[in-house]
Write a structure and sequence with these properties.
There is one protein chain. Helix 6 crosses helix 9 and helix 12 packs parallel to helix 13. The protein has 494 residues and is of the alpha+beta class. A hairpin with a 4-residue loop joins strand 2 and strand 3. The strands form two sheets. A six-stranded mixed β-sheet has the order 5-4-8-7-6-9, with helices on both faces. The chain is built from 20 helices and nine strands. The chain is globular, with a radius of gyration of 28 Å.
Length: 494
C-alpha cells in the first residue's frame, strides 16, 4: 500500500531524526554542517515539511550518508513497527478527531519519541496477537470507549431525531411502531420490504435483516418479533435519513470493512432507539419508576411493551438519558447469551460508563454464578422447557462485590433469542449504589430486593465457602503467593 503525502513527510522526518541521534549530533550540529536553520530541520523532523532536493543533499552530506538511502521509505529495525502502522489502514480508518486528536497531533506524537513509541506499538501488537484480537475486535473496543467517554449520550444525534420528528409532524404523544416505519420507508424512500425464512435463504436464517442496495430491498427474517422489526426498520431509516453511506448491509456483523461502518451503524442504531423511545416520555416513566417505594418487575415489562422496544433497546436508551437528565453515570451494561439447558454463558456486549471494568469480559475464566445476569438465564431456560415463557423475565438484585467493595443495583431482563434456536439472552444494567442513587431511587430500601455477595470470576474470588463455585481461585492464590513472597523479602531486609 502506498503512503500518502503526510506519511511520506513523517517517514523522512523520523529517519532524519533517528539518523542524527544515532550519529550523536544535536540539532545545532546538523544545522551548522548542513547550512540549514535549526527551526527548519526541526520542522522536517516533525513531519511538517519535506525538503527540496538540494536541501536533502546538504543533509545527507552533513551526516555522511547517500541521498538515496535518506529518501528511501524503508525504515530501520528500530522504527519498523511504525512503518507497518503507516502502511496499514489504522491511521486513515480510525477517526482520531472523535477523541480530540487531530492529524497534526498524531504526527507530532509519532515524531516526538519514535523509538519509544515504536516499542510501545510492538507491545500493543504482541498483546493483540497473544489474545487473538482481530482488527474488528479492536474497532469495537474503540467504539465502546467512544460511547463511555461521552456517557453514551450524543446531543447531535438527539437533535437529528428531534428534526426528523418535527419534519414528519410526529407529536409527542404518538408512539412510532413497525407499521409507521414500514409505510414511511416504502412510500417516502422507495424501500421494498420482504420477509424470508429458512426455505428462502437457509444460510442467513440467523440474521435479522439484510439490505440489498442494488434493488433497494430490505429483507427481514420472519422469526423476529414485532419489537425487533420496529428496531430493524428504525435503524434502516437512520441510515437513509442521516445519509450514512459506509454501512453494514446485514444486522449481524458478517464482515467489518472499516471503522466508519461501525461508527455509522452505531449512529443508525442510536437513531432507531431514540425514535422508538422518545426522550421526554422515557424520562417521565423513569421518574415514576424511581419514585415508587417498592420495586416492581412488571414496570419494566410494561415500559418495553409501551415503547415497542426490545429489552436491549430499552436498556441502551435508559443508559442514554440517565447521566444527562438524572445525574446517574456510574453504570454498566452487560449482554449474555447461553444455550437452553446449559450453564455456558457468553458475554457478547459490555459498556462501563463508570470507567471501572467490574464485571468485565473474561474468555478464560468463569463468571460469578451469583450474578442475576446469569441466574435469570437459568430461570428462562427452565420456563422455556416447560413452555411457559410468555414475556421477558425480570430480575433485580443488589450485588455486593466483596473484593472491590463496590455495590450495584442490577436490573436484568431475559428471554429466548428467537433468531437463534435453543439460545437465551439476558441484558443487565447495573447502577453503583451511592448517596446520589439513594436520593434518586426510592425503592432501594425495598426488603424484597435480594442482596448477594458476588465477585468477578471464580478464579479471582475469595469466597471459599461459595456453593456456586465452579473453578478454583487460582488467580487469587497466585496473587497471594506473590504477596507472601514480598512480605518475606521485606522481613529479611529487617
Amino acid at each position: 500500500m502506498s503512503l500518502n503525502t503526510d506519511n511520506i513527510r513523517l517517514v523522512f522526518g523520523l529517519k532524519l531524526k533517528q539518523l542524527r541521534i544515532d550519529k550523536g549530533m544535536s540539532l545545532t550540529d546538523l544545522a551548522q554542517k548542513s547550512g540549514l536553520s535549526m527551526s527548519y530541520i526541526n520542522e522536517i523532523e516533525k513531519g511538517k515539511k519535506y525538503p527540496k532536493s538540494d536541501k536533502i543533499v546538504a543533509l545527507a552530506d552533513a551526516m555522511g550518508v547517500d541521498y538515496d538511502s535518506l529518501v528511501s521509505l524503508k525504515l530501520n529495525k528500530k522504527l519498523e513497527p511504525i512503518s507497518e502502522l503507516l502502511h496499514s489502514n489504522f491511521l486513515t480508518e480510525l477517526p482520531f478527531e472523535i477523541f480530540g486528536i487531530s492529524p497534526a497531533d498524531l504526527l507530532e506524537l509519532l515524531s516526538g519519541a519514535p523509538t519509544k513509541l515504536s516499542a510501545f506499538i510492538s507491545t500493543i501488537i504482541e498483546i493483540g496477537r497473544n489474545y487473538n484480537m482481530t482488527v474488528e475486535q479492536f474497532y469495537f473496543a474503540v467504539m465502546r470507549s467512544y460511547q463511555e467517554m461521552h456517557d453514551n449520550y450524543f446531543p447531535e444525534l438527539e437533535e437529528v431525531v428531534d428534526r426528523f420528528l418535527a419534519e414528519n409532524r410526529i407529536s409527542a404523544d404518538t408512539q412510532i411502531d413497525e407499521f409507521y416505519l414500514s409505510n414511511l420507508l416504502t412510500d417516502k424512500y422507495g424501500i421494498a420490504i420482504k420477509y424470508f425464512d429458512e426455505d428462502d435463504y437457509p444460510h442467513i436464517i440467523n440474521i435479522r435483516s439484510v439490505f440489498l442496495p442494488k434493488t433497494n430491498t430490505l429483507l427481514i427474517n420472519k422469526r423476529i418479533t414485532s419489537d425487533q422489526r420496529a428496531f430493524t426498520l428504525g435503524r434502516e431509516l437512520g441510515f437513509i435519513y442521516m445519509k450514512l453511506k459506509d454501512r453494514p448491509y446485514t444486522s449481524s456483523w458478517v464482515e467489518v470493512k472499516s471503522f466508519e461502518e461501525i461508527l455509522n451503524n452505531f449512529k443508525a442504531s442510536y437513531f432507531a432507539g431514540a425514535i422508538l423511545i422518545r426522550r421526554e416520555k422515557l424520562i417521565e416513566k423513569l421518574e415514576q419508576l424511581f419514585n415508587q417505594p417498592t420495586w416492581s418487575n412488571a414496570a419494566l415489562v410494561e415500559m418495553a411493551e409501551q415503547f415497542q422496544a426490545t429489552p436491549e433497546t430499552l436498556y441502551h436508551r435508559i443508559s442514554n438519558v440517565l447521566p444527562r437528565y438524572f445525574g446517574i453515570d456510574e453504570i454498566f451494561f452487560l449482554r449474555f447469551e447461553a444455550p437452553t439447558g446449559k450453564k455456558e454463558y457468553h458475554l457478547t456486549k459490555e459498556m462501563h460508563l463508570a470507567r471501572r471494568h467490574t464485571p468485565h469480559e473474561s474468555q478464560e475464566e468463569h463468571y460469578c454464578r451469583r450474578w442475576v445476569s446469569l441466574n435469570i438465564l437459568d430461570d428462562v431456560s427452565d420456563l422455556q422447557q416447560k413452555g411457559e415463557v410468555k414475556e421477558p423475565l425480570v430480575g433485580v438484585q443488589i450485588s455486593n462485590y466483596v473484593d472491590s467493595g463496590s455495590k450495584y443495583l442490577v436490573m436484568a431482563m431475559a428471554r429466548p433469542l428467537n433468531i437463534i434456536k435453543h439460545t437465551n439472552i439476558s441484558v443487565s444494567v447495573g447502577f453503583e449504589i451511592n448517596d446520589n442513587l439513594r436520593a434518586k431511587m426510592k425503592f432501594l430500601d425495598d426488603p424484597n430486593i435480594v442482596t448477594r455477595d458476588v465477585n468477578q470470576t471464580c478464579e479471582r474470588c475469595s469466597l471459599f465457602d461459595c456453593k456456586e463455585r465452579v473453578a478454583a481461585p487460582v488467580i487469587l492464590q497466585k496473587k497471594r503467593q506473590i504477596q507472601n513472597m514480598k512480605a518475606a523479602l521485606r522481613a529479611m531486609e529487617g
